């Protein structure tokens, strides 16, 4: 598994504002979108391309297009939805699948409540988007769905990750033969006793969309 931690002052600045408990929802949403656009630049570095001929007003030359089959972006609801617009701005030809997943706050186990993915993901480059990688339970379950459907090339784009979650994902995908990459804006210190990332930013879904019971 490959881990890429963004190292850029603009990303660090935006993450710091996100962490601030006084940052309001509209600002939080805007920053999430801006951050994912910056992270997507790195996450799509290995996107498959093909050579095409293009005629400019001056001459014909060879250029580059994103190849078929189209990549697929999969936001993990709710919080991942806040990253979707930023991601598809950089990957406009991508298809979009959806996974609705919720972490049981007592057991910290992930539960899937919605699943809308193409049945055949063979040969597709997949981009999972979710701002928080905490215990890793949610991301592991999401990667397992994609692998069951035939995907072999998965990149997860996250804003914050805990070291515990990164290690859990690394162990879970070992021996699957899949190529898995995690691109993250920052790796934090640890998880607390409630499974929250420390220092983190709190509950990303609640900060984007409001608290639900
Ligand atoms: O790594 P894990 O320990 O599994 O935790 C991470 C998950 O928790 C959050 O979602 P949450 O369950 O709060 O759902 P929400 O997006 O609807 O708020 C987050 O967006 C991840 O999906
Ligand atoms: O810190 C955390 C952990 C899980 N989910 C969140 O939204 N935040
Ligand atoms: Mg949440």
TrEMBL record:
GO terms for cellular component: cytoplasm. GO terms for molecular function: GTP binding; magnesium ion binding; uracil phosphoribosyltransferase activity. It comes from Rarobacter incanus. Uracil binds at residues 197, 202-204. Catalyzes the conversion of uracil and 5-phospho-alpha-D-ribose 1-diphosphate (PRPP) to UMP and diphosphate. It comes from the Bacteria. It catalyses: UMP + diphosphate = 5-phospho-alpha-D-ribose 1-diphosphate + uracil. Keywords: Allosteric enzyme, Glycosyltransferase, GTP-binding, Magnesium, Nucleotide-binding, Transferase. CDD domains: PRTases_typeI. Residues 5-210 form the Phosphoribosyltransferase domain. This is Uracil phosphoribosyltransferase. SUPFAM superfamilies: PRTase-like. It is an enzyme of class 2 (transferase). Its EC number is 2.4.2.9. InterPro entries: PRTase-like (IPR029057), PRTase_dom (IPR000836), Upp_B (IPR034332), UPRT (IPR005765), UPRTase/APRTase (IPR050054). One of its GO terms (biological process) is uracil salvage. Binds 1 Mg(2+) ion per subunit. The magnesium is bound as Mg-PRPP. The gene is upp.
């Amino acid at each position: 598994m490959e881990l890429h931690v963004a190292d850029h002052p603009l990303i660090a600045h935006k993450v710091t504002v996100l962490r601030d408990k006084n940052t309001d929802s509209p600002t939080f949403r805007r920053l999430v979108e801006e951050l994912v656009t910056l992270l997507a630049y790195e996450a799509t570095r290995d996107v498959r391309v093909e050579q095409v001929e293009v005629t400019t007003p001056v001459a014909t030359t060879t250029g580059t297009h994103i190849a078929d089959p189209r990549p697929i972006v999969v936001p993990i609801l709710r919080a991942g939805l806040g990253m979707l617009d930023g991601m598809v701005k950089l990957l406009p030809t991508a298809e979009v699948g959806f996974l609705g997943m919720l972490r049981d706050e007592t057991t910290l186990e992930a539960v899937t409540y919605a699943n809308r993915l193409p049945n055949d993901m063979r040969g597709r480059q997949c981009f999972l988007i979710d701002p928080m990688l905490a215990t890793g339970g949610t991301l592991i379950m999401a990667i397992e769905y994609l692998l069951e459907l035939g995907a072999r090339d998965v990149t997860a784009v996250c804003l914050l990750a805990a070291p515990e979650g990164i290690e859990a994902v690394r162990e879970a995908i070992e021996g699957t033969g899949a190529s898995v990459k995690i691109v993250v804006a920052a790796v934090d210190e640890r998880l607390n006793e409630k499974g929250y990332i420390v220092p983190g930013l709190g509950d990303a879904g609640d900060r984007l969309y409001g608290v639900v019971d």
